[in-house]
Structures are given as C-alpha cells and as structure tokens.
Amino acid sequence: MSDFRRAYHSIRPAGAPEGGTNLALTALLVMAVLYFARELLVPLALAVLLSFVLAPIVRALRRIGTPRVLAVLAAVLAAVAVLLMLGLVMARQLAELANDIPFYQFELTRKLSSINASGGMIERVQEMLQGLAAGAERAAPEPPPMPAADQVRPFPVQVHPPPPRTFEVLRTVVEPLLYPLATFGIVIVFVIFVLLYREDLRDRLIRLIGAHDLQRTMAAMDDAAYRLSRFFLAQVAMNSIYGMVIALALFFIGVPQPILWGIVAGLMRFVPFVGTIIAVAFPLLLSLAVEPGWTMPVLVLVLFAVGEGAMGQVFEPLIFGRSTGLSPIAVIVAATFWTWLWGPVGLVMAVPLTVCLVVLGRHVERFEFLEVALGDRPPLEPPETFYQRALGDDPDALAEQAEIALRESRLSRYYDTVALPGLALAQADAQRGRLGELQLKGMRARLASLLEDLEEDVEQDAIPLAKGDPTVPRPVPPASAGPILCVGGRGPFDMAAAAMLAQVLRKRGLDAGAAPAEMLRADATPAEDLARIRQAWLCTVEGMGSTAAARSILRRVKRRLPGVEVNVLVIGDEGRLAEALRQEGAGSITTTIDATAAQAFQMGEDQEEDTQNVPSSGGTA
User: Where is this region: Disordered (predicted)?
Assistant: First the structure.
C-alpha cells in the first residue's frame, strides 16, 4: 500500500538550495573560493583523504591499547616513511634513466630508420617536403646587396658572467623544492590534527548539518566515514599490489627501471581515463628503444591490457561491489572540473573527492542533489521511469525497461511494483488536469503496444511454489473455471490495468479477457455471450472519480452479469473506495495483480468442486 501512496505525489525534486539565481551565485562563489584558495585547500583536501586512509590503522592501534597520540603519530610516521622511500626510489630510478637517455634515443632513431628503409614511406614524405622547400627557395626574391668592403664591421663581444657563488648554487638547487616540501609539511600537520580531533570535527559537522536529528545524523556520518575509510584504504592497497605486480612483470620482461614504472602504474590507477595511457606509454617507449625486435613492446601491451582488465572487471567489483558509486558521466565531469581547478593534483584527487560528495548527498538531505547528479543510482524510481517513458514518444524504451525487469522477476510482480504504481502516477496527474487528451491517447497506445509485446515474449507467469519446495507440483488450472472477464472502469488507465490482469491470468492457464465497462451495455454485447462468464473483476485505479461513480459502475456490471460474483481490483486504494464498494455488494477486493490471480485461481477451484458436488438429475426421489 505504501508504494501506491508514494505514487500519488508528483515527483519530488532532490533537496537543493531553493531559487535558481541563488543556486547559480552560490555555485560561482564556491568555484571562485576553490580556485583562488587552492594554495590552502589542496593540502587540506589531501590531508582529509590521507586521514581516511590512515583512520583504520589508527583504530586498529587503539584497539590494542595504544594511546591516541602515539597511535596517530605511529600511523603518520609510517605513511611518511613509505612516501619518502617511494620518493627516493623514484629519484634514483629517474637519475639512472637520465643517464641512459642518449642510448635510448640512438636506438629509437635506428629503429625508425629501419622502418623507413623497409617501407620507404617516411623517406618519400621527407623527399617531398625537401622538394617543396627547394621550390619555395627558388621562388623567393633576391636577397639585398651585401655591404661594401670598406664599411667598418663590428667587433664580436662576448660577456662572461662571474662564477656563481655557493649561496646562489644552493638557492638554485633548493628553491624548486621549497614549495613541494612546504606543501608536504602542511599536509602532514593537517593529517595529524584531523586524526587527533576527529570526534570534535565530527561533532561540529553534525552541529552544522543536522543537530535537530542527532541520532540519525551521527549514525549517518559514522557510517559514511567508516565506509569511506575502508574504500580508500582498500583502493590504496589494491593499487599498491597492482604496482608491485607490474614492476615484477616488467623486470622479467626486461624493461629498464621496472620499479619506477610500477610506482607510476600504481599512482596512475587513481587517475581516471588517462591514467592507464600514461602508465603504459613510458614502458612501451623504453621497450621499443631497448630491443631491436617487437617482442618486448607486445608483451608490455599485453601485460597492461590483462592487468587493467583484471583490476576493472574482477578484483574491483569483488572488493568494492558494483562500482565506486559514481556514474560514468560524473567521473568524466569530475576529472575535468578538478583538473581545471587544481591542475594535475586535482586530476589525481577527482574520484576520491567526488566519492566524498556523493556520500555526503546520500546521508544529508539538504545535499541530496549531489547524489542525484553524481551517483550511479537511478535518478527516478522504477514507477516514475515507467510513467516518464509511457508519457514520452518512445515505446521501445518502455519495452526495454520491462525486459530488464522481467529478467529477475515474474510478469505479475513487474506489473504490481512498476507498471501499476506508474499508472497511479499518471492517474494522479490526469486528475489534476496536467495531461491533455492527446497525451492520454498516446499513453494508452504505448501501453497497448507494451502489452502486445509482453503477450508474445513472456511465455508464462509461474505460480510461486509453496515455501520454494521444488517437489510440490504446480497447481493445474481448474478445467471448469470458464471465461473470466476483467472490466475496465471509467478512468483513463483502468482499461490498461484490466488488460494487464487478463494477461497474467492467461499466462497462468486461465481463460480470461478484458473489456471496458461500456461494452456491458445491452446494445453492445449480446446476453448469450455474457452468460458464459463465470468470474468478473472490475479494475479501477484510485482517483478515477467520485466514489459514487465507482459504485455506479459496479451496479451496472452486477446487473449485466446476474448470478456472477463481481470482484474488484482497486489499484492504489487507501481504504475509502474499497469500503464503499464492499457496501455496494462487491465480492473479493484485492489491491495487486498477483493476489488477484491467486484469488481467481482459488475461485475457479471452488467452482469446479461445486460443479462436481451437484447431484445428477437421475437421482431417486
């Protein structure tokens, strides 16, 4: 019942600051602050992300009795030691690479020359360019006359700067390192204070976001922080293992400086889209320069292809679930946005920062729009999507949604959880006058097309077995159930609901059909055809009109089907209409197609038993 209550309300926009102008000004102000305050915000963002990574380590140390200060300092010092060690290794490997660059350059030139000699294409292009240059020189005007010999020529002057002093040499070496070292120091200080005063920061955030609902806000923030910590720590661990595997594989392949390229590969796993290209480019170029043949470059390409495929398709879904919680478009937009704001550092932090924003939107109502815009959850509920696609001029999209839903559920469940709540949404809008006659006509046509597709594609709507026991045989449809008539009410979508019910009954082996209430007039359907009906179900979507109108239709159906119990399927009923129809003499009243089909099946069995128990006319007096 709660599903249908939600369907009566129009689609609620996600929580966001009210007012388009205020929202635009706020967004511009936030972007300006992020850009102009990047010298402070970049270290702070790095510190927050690093604190998420180190928080599980601090918690583990606290569990074994380590004081908070010692636990924080131990975790931070361990992280600093790892980072410094990686930096020293990379510096040493880069120095070795710089010494070998002339040799690699010579080998690459020789390989290009061999390609040129074998194919000749490069040489022909070079000759063509030289010919064009020669033609341009011949067409050029004559140069101006040389100056006379007796003119005084200037003496060449050479300026020799004094040898640099020791202080200037130190300044030249140290000055480029000051900014990175200062940033690194600020990040470490921020990390220490964030870890030391984590609870205090959490309490202040709770006060800013939702102090009116303290318990719920605290639970949401603790859950978000715990999940983010586990996610980032697992990401760091997986990327580190990936880098070590790549380094080991490159070592066996024979690529120079394998440790350097393994570290780069692990770091580039944090960079969306272009990270893989950057990680594979340098080892590939070196493999081209080292080996005369093509075996090593091919092995490098295969290594990265297999590694990226295994990480993206096997290990990450296994560890993290389906994804990071971001939509693909959000990842692209986030990478572009943070790179534009903060440069290469922003590109590395794009995905982690956006994940934090999505988690914030998931747990804090006023920031819900962040999850809607950036998250990978469907922006609309299935009934809302059904309504939107039925309203739009795209019947294929409506059929595609049904096909996806029917992979995991029965036809009756799809109708009860998706289609009927979607019809309730449409009915509510029609009652408010938001849907014109052309729109209603188009929706009915698309719904009829969907029912036609499902009639052909879905073979049967299996009846659930008792307690899932495969040894219990499926019930056999009663032979004497006779035709079942599903009658659509006066509402614009009542006939669609009746057609859905009739289709499910047919899929379960019963003889059922659907007709609008107008077909029950005396001049529309002969009485002998109606005499064959054994069951009748009036289908109506709540909100079709007044209760008096629904009772009027029920009376008409009962008059045209004397001796047949008229039952009612009320979609989205909150109790008032059902009670009024029950007082009018309705039989069974149901609210879902699944329950209606089960009730119709049971009524058919009862009718069959009654038929068998009727005494024959040849009995004794």
Answer: 602-621
Q: How far does CA 144 lie from the centroid of its chain?
A: 70
Q: Which pLDDT value is given to residue 617?
A: 45
Is the alpha carbon torsion for 413, 414, 418, 421 positive or negative? negative
Encoding tokens for residue 145?
A: 């006359």
Q: Phi-psi category of 572—alpha, beta or left, where left has phi over 0 and alpha has psi -120 to 50? A: left
Strand, coil or helix: 570: strand
- Do the domain assignments include residue 421? yes
Cα distances (angstroms) measured from residue 521 to each of 515, 545, 561, 590, 617: 12, 20, 11, 25, 35
pTM for the full predicted model = 0.65
Q: Is residue 567 domain-shared with residue 425, that is, in the same domain? A: yes
Find the distance separating the first CA and the last CA of the chain, reported in whole Å: 54
Q: Is residue 593 part of a domain?
A: yes
Rounded CA gap, 446 and 393, in Å?
8
Q: Which residue has the tokens 């039989």?
A: 587
419 in the same domain as 272: no
Q: How many CB atoms within 10 Å of residue 416?
A: 22
What local confidence, expressed as pLDDT, does residue 566 receive? 85
What torsion do the CA atoms of 22, 25, 31, 36 make, to the nearest 10 degrees?
Answer: -130
Residue 470 is assigned to a structural domain of this protein: no
The residue range of the domain holding 404 is: 390-462+475-609
Task: Answer whether residue 405 is part of any domain.
Answer: yes
pLDDT of res. 74: 93
Side chain identity, residue 157: V
Element (H, E) at 246: helix 214-253
Q: Give pLDDT, residue 474.
A: 44
CB 7 within 8 Å of CB 425:
yes
Burial of 38 (0-12, 13-18, 19+ CB in 10 A): middle
Residues 4, 381 contacting (CB under 8 angstroms): no
- For residues 336 and 435, membership in a common domain is answered with no
Domain boundary among 318, 339, 374: 374
Cβ-Cβ contacts under 8 Å for 390 (sequence gap 6 or more): 398, 422, 426, 443, 446, 447, 450
Burial class of residue 148, CB neighbours in 10 A (0-12, 13-18, 19+): exposed
398 and 448 share one domain? yes
Q: Which of 350, 374, 398 is the last residue of a domain?
A: 374
Q: Into how many domains does the chain fold? A: 2
- Taking residue 593's Cβ as centre, other Cβ atoms within 10 Å add up to 27
- Token digits of residue 361: 């939107």
Instruction: Let me know the angle formed at the C-alpha of 232 by 229 and 234, rounded to the nearest 5 degrees.
Output: 100
Contact of 452 with 410, CB cutoff 8 Å: no
Mean pLDDT by 10 residues, the chain (621 residues): 48 53 81 88 88 88 90 92 89 84 73 59 58 56 54 60 62 69 86 88 74 67 74 85 93 90 90 83 86 84 90 76 70 87 86 82 79 80 86 80 84 88 86 85 88 76 47 43 78 88 87 82 67 83 67 82 83 71 79 86 70 50 32
pLDDT reported for residue 158: 63
* Conformational region of residue 474, where left means phi above 0, alpha means psi within -120 to 50, and beta covers everything else: beta
